[in-house]
Amino acid sequence: MRYLIEEYNNDGFLKAPKLLLAGWLFLAKAWIIFIVAGASRDMGAKLLEIIYPVHSSLYLGLIAGFPALLLIWLLSLRKHDRKRICMVVSYGKLATLITISVQILLVLYQIYLENSQFSWPNAVTLLSLIWLMLYILRSRRVRDCFRSPLLS
């Protein structure tokens, strides 16, 4: 056994690392902002206008963040009798890497819309996405998290 017993859930599946969960929440940031804007009724439209001045980038962010939310949900549904869910989750690493690539393209598109001028939010977002991609590619724990004992 490579990991501590506390790192497995009740069904024997390895829990997702906290850094991976934080990365998924970062990928789903458009959803979080959308929910916060909906919860703050009066200021919601202004909040969305400040963070996403181009409405299409909000919609693209919602589409690009959906796989991360789906993986968070499906990871909690893994059980021994749900082989299809386990099979879908086993492709989670690839889906996350594709989602990160799409998010990087969205940031590059945002930089293009700003006439290639430097801005700290774009720089920090791009750097965070690259770090997250490297973490997912290199982490043994992430690889083992998506591996299902049922499919081995």
UniProtKB/TrEMBL annotation:
One Pfam family from the record: DUF2919
Organism domain of life: Bacteria
InterPro entries hit by this protein: DUF2919
Transmembrane segments: 20-38, 58-76, 88-112, 118-137
Keyword DNA-binding tagged: no
Keywords: Membrane, Transmembrane, Transmembrane helix
Keyword Coiled coil: no
Protein name: DUF2919 domain-containing protein
Gene source species: Vibrio algarum
